[in-house]
Amino acid sequence: xxxxxxxxxxxxxxxxxxxxxxxxxxxxxxxxxxxxxxxxxxxxxxxxxxxxxxxxxxxxxxxxxxxxxxxxxxxxxxxxxxxxxxxxxxxxxxxxxx
Length: 98
Hints:
98 residues, alpha+beta, four-stranded mixed beta sheet, 31% strand
């Protein structure tokens, strides 16, 4: 994926996240879709929620199956759980003294 494409996708994700806070998710991220507990090679908008509920139970507040043509992946997540994504702002490189 080219940088400009990724930048555009991230803007769509950020805008969707800001406009849909009422849905009660923890956060949104770009990552690979997980099916049956295994990561696939399919890029998706991953929406982390405290508890997964059926779309029928959520009614009009359910998360769409796709956003701007990219599939969504709803993932039950707790703050104690580690996630396989990394925020580049939080990466620290080890310094070696000379």
